[in-house]
Design the sequence.
């Protein structure tokens, strides 16, 4: 599992093609909502969960997938981009895992991500 406390996650940028990395993990009734990628790692939002992908090793052929179900979310917080701080942030608190934090590049529709989480977690 990804160590969210000690792992520095690079800023994520929208990349719909990144969703292909998790297609084998999806349930029959699960749909990808959006996907984001940093240098190698990424995160995919579905209608049931958040899937964090940690690409490992020199060749990148080894991957760690962490499934974060919306049903375990107890709270979440978003920080929109501003004039000088153009990055957006999402902090999600899970009942058994604790806090998970994602940083997104400027221009990311963080409020849209918030609406998706609210629709499935509340």
Sequence:
């Amino acid at each position: 599992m990804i160590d969210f406390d000690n792992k520095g996650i690079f800023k994520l940028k929208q990349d719909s093609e990144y969703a292909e990395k998790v297609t084998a993990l999806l349930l029959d009734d699960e749909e990808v909502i959006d996907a984001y990628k940093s240098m190698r790692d990424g995160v995919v939002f579905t209608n049931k969960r958040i899937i964090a992908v940690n690409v490992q090793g020199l060749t990148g052929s080894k991957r760690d997938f962490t499934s974060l179900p919306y049903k375990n979310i107890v709270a979440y917080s978003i920080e929109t981009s501003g004039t000088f701080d153009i990055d957006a942030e999402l902090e999600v608190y899970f009942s058994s895992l604790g806090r998970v934090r994602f940083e997104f590049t400027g221009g990311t529709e963080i409020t849209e991500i918030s609406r998706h989480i609210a629709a499935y977690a509340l």
